Amino acid sequence: MDDDAVFKALADRSRRLLLDRLHRNNGQSLGDLCEGLRMSRQAVAKHLGILEEANLVAVQWAGREKLHFINPVPINQISERWIGKFELPRMRVLSDLKASLEKKSPREK
Asked: Which listed residue, of 43, 85, 100, 103, carries a Cα 20 to 30 Å from 16's Cα?
């Protein structure tokens, strides 16, 4: 995975908007994704190309129509690498606190 490409792709608000739209309704064509946006078709296509290069969007051809699908794997990998490792110690502390409280105040059965 190319972290730099993923971070670059996610850094742009328009690309995050496209990912949000694909998350709500996966498998959209370029025309579908352009609807209601204040961007030209060429700009949307360029943003989709960057998302594809970062492996955040996968495409599938249905006849002459190119459908775009969100690929959550790179985002999950970033989450595990950059967020998860910082959350684990906090979760351990909460787990230890819960265990400690349960020892001090046993639940009634």
From this structure: 85
